Amino acid sequence: MADGQSTEEPPPSTVAKPKPHKEKELYPMSDWKYDAFLHTFSVLVDLFFREVHPRGAWRVPRTGPILFVAAPHANQFVDGLVLQRTLKNEANRRVGLLIAEKSVHGFIGWGSRQTGSVPVGRAQDKAKPASGLIYLPDPINDPTLIRGVGTNFEKEAEVGGMIFLPSVKGQSGSSVDISKIIGPEEIRIKRPFKAKVPLLQLTGRDDIDEKGSFTNKGLNGIQDGYPGTKFKIAPHIDQTEVYKAVFNRLRSGGCIGIFPEGGSHDRTELLPLKAGVAIMALGTLAEDPDCGLQIVPVGMNYFHAHKFRSRAVVEFGAPFQIPREIVEKYKNNERRDAIGQTLDMVHQALSAVTVSSPDYDTLMCIQGARRLYNTGKKLPLPMVVELNRRLAVGFSKYKDDPRIIDLMNNVKEYNKQLRYLNIRDHQVAYAKMTLPVVIVTLLYRIAKLIVLSIGVIPGLFLFAPVFAASKIISHKKAKEALAGSSVKIQGRDVMATWKLLVAMAFAPVLYNLYSMILAVKVYQDHLWGYVPDWVPFWLMFVGGWIVFPAITFAALRFGEVGMDIAKSLRPLVLCISPTSSYSIHKLRERRAELSKKVVKVINDLGPDMYEDFETTRLVPDPLQADGVLSLKESERAAEPTPPDSPHLSRKNTTRSSQAIPRNESFSNIGAIGMFATRPPSRSRSRSSSSGGGFGSGGFPVSGFTALDTNEGFNEASTKIRAAMKQRGELRRRKSGLSSDGEGSEA
Question: Potential cystine with 349: which of 231, 297, 517, 633 (Cβ 3.0-4.6 Å)?
């Protein structure tokens, strides 16, 4: 034969089973293209974000098919780049993302093809305004019948398409599938509208309660004189190829990443999850129940996601599998129930790795309460996220409790005072400084700011056109995105993406222009005679591409420090001013009182939420033995940790400790189980996110770092005695005796 194989039939004992034919992928992923793309464009992540912390990367399985579900989708295309980069660096897994079909054009489309992304058509992207108005002729007895005035459903609509109602401020418009077209002015939908807003839009009636029920059962039609509402119609979207590509990728052991909210947004809570994520998981398992598919939730937690040099924590939750009984339901035409159960599982998993609040004001109060509660040293970013999450869960559970209501009102008022004075919470501690110290500190920081400005101004001047263009264009795109979306609040989710895209497009052009000007000047008069005659002009062109980006990068780093210093000047000036000094001193006293209240409420409600509240605290109990929070402790919470703090000092450290982030150290993360990036029982880290240094194998490093002083030995002895006492108390309880030797009824 042409392929060189023998035509003779081998003995039956040696006949090899034919290998299953591997179907050609619709959207193939090339490993080298994927790695080259990430390696090239990961620099954008490092430039835009000050810090990106991975947490829990050890949970990601190193082999087998994985469906990554990430939320909240707060940063449009930047989210995908951050997720892919983190997974490649921390778990060595390549993931193909689902991307909106309307976005696979230009540079974004080219980049998506390099990383094996799967384009998805969305009905909302193809929805167009339809002619006429619609209403519900009989919303009580026949809620699935929709009638139109001046409509032409037979030409504009199709079975399987969707109807979209107008969005209202702060709430997305409702949508429903079309099941039957009766005529040009009548259609039937698959399910009735149940919420108050869509029923109000379709009937004009004001007798609808919050649950979407009509209180006046005697009125069957719409409100007298109500003309109807405008609407949009989207065609039927055939997702067969999309699901086929996803099934093939997962069955072959690959990874798929999806943002199940359906689109990016700038809300503080999770949007309702789309059914597609459940269909992809259930469809894969229905075709191959033994493929071992696992779902890994990913929390994309940002601090000011749209701002330049912000921070982020990418948290990976525990992987889970869909039970076989749910898969059997999906296969036995009980799809609605199976999809609903799967979406519930995904939502619960995402809730464990994200911080969600009903609105922006509540989120600000939760973060304010976290700052007031933490009276110890500066916390690592992952712990900050975890504290925010626990406080958000507590607020959601006890939001009707009078103590929580009163506390939230007090925190809101405190935040309002901070905004009025235009200072931050940690700057309130400046009020305890004496006047000479304040003056010296102010003069020192002004001098430091002037020195830093020498390194900032050249790069700022050179890069100013890019800064201006990125700001103008990103705000313009945000307005356009807001106008075309029913879920966005301010459209900030697209700003980071457009800032990066504009910088990528304009920066090379700008540097090339500067280099050309430099080369021309050298060619004309050797840069006013400062350049030797033997230096060719083309060499200066090449040198310009090195010097100008270096100046910009130096300005970026110097400017980052300079902005922090500039923001600290205002509270110092307020401390010097006789009128403002009183206000900031009163605010300091107010903060101390509010800190006591926050700690007391958390200590009262915490044990009700967590049975092991005392043993799983993220920070030590700020209260003293007498239950009073000292003013000194509250001040310590407000003031920033000094650079030479023994807890955060990086001096005289071993080589291995240099692998962990600069704002952390072994002494402040070694004993914190929730921060560990691998199980404490493992002696070998599975993830480089742990830092990879000595002691990352699971034994408590902080136990060694704390025993270098007498205080450390005393603290260790105290803990050992307390543990022995607790253990003895437990033994006496088991034997039926109380601590005083008497019998216990329990």
Answer: 297
